[in-house]
Design a protein that fits this description.
283 residues; alpha/beta; globular; 7 helices
């Protein structure tokens, strides 16, 4: 966590604190909760204290922003991998206010705010209709039930990019009604669960999400198969381990990103072949 994140769809990660409370099936095998416990921090659950970070930690985004002024691309900052900025507990409020000041002070960074509580976003951000252009806002949607509950809240927000993380994908998901219109989902991340207790994903569910994105001209990032992956071209998934399962879908790696004008941008380091490179689509 921090600079040069190993998470494929971001550049850096930043946590204003550690700690959260589980809210839906996607949380059942939360990697962040397991990591915190492994490091001796009991910060999960409604009665737990949050872990606060040092001033040096808070200065890191300012350094990234300064370096970005001399770079040709815009770093993306995932906030937060070890918490949910919009959990809304009272003790988090001062840290959240500190975070908003950092976001505004780093215009060369695109901040990716991912939450499982999109219904709280509007009341907890300091912006109304004039959001900073470096704020992307996203929510997790692990199955159709949570897609239908969470995405309408997301579409109501005037962020420059609205995205959904369909990870872990725990059931078939139809996003199509949310991928069209003036306010739509601008980017989709999809992936399977990893870890010893991972729940297998159906290959057909992934292909359906991909096909919906392609039909709507919405950029897609396929993060991983997870612990279970395809073998010998079969739709049936077997336990291979995250590394062996990989992140290729039907012979292609999907690393698409949204651009700031509403189309598709493929990063220079993309593994997509020239024959599959997408054309720009504009909403």
């Amino acid at each position: 966590m921090g600079a040069n994140s190993t998470i494929e769809w971001t550049t850096h990660t930043f946590n204003p604190w550690w700690g959260c409370t589980n809210v839906s099936p996607a949380c059942d095998h939360c990697y962040a909760e397991l990591l915190a416990k492994r490091r001796g921090f009991r910060v999960w659950g409604p009665g737990a204290f949050i872990r606060q970070l040092s001033d040096a930690h808070w200065r890191e985004p300012l350094k990234w922003n300064e370096r970005a002024t001399r770079a040709s691309d815009r770093p993306r900052v995932f906030c937060a991998s070890m918490a949910d900025v919009f959990e809304g507990r009272p003790e988090q409020a001062p840290l959240r206010e500190r975070l908003w000041k950092i976001v505004v002070a780093t215009p060369n960074l695109d901040w990716l705010l991912l939450t499982k509580r999109p219904g709280k976003i509007a009341e907890l951000v300091p912006w109304q209709e004039a959001w900073p252009r470096n704020v992307w806002v996203g929510t997790t949607a692990e199955n159709q039930e949570w897609t239908d509950k969470r995405l309408p809240h997301l579409l109501a927000l005037p962020a420059i990019v609205r995205f959904v993380s369909v990870e872990p994908l725990l059931g078939p998901v139809d996003l199509s009604t949310f991928l069209h219109g003036e306010r739509r989902i601008d980017w989709v991340i999809v992936g399977g669960e990893s870890g010893a207790a991972a729940r297998p994903m159906n290959a057909g569910w992934v292909r359906a999400v991909r096909d919906q994105c392609v039909a709507a001209g919405v950029p897609l990032h396929f993060k991983q198969w997870g612990t279970f992956g395809p073998r010998n071209g079969s739709d049936g998934l077997v336990r291979l381990g995250k590394k062996s399962a990989g992140r290729s879908l039907d012979g292609r790696t999907w690393d698409q990103l949204p651009n700031r004008e509403g189309g598709i941008a493929v990063p220079p380091t993309s593994h997509e072949s020239e024959t599959h490179r997408p054309e720009a689509h504009h909403g």
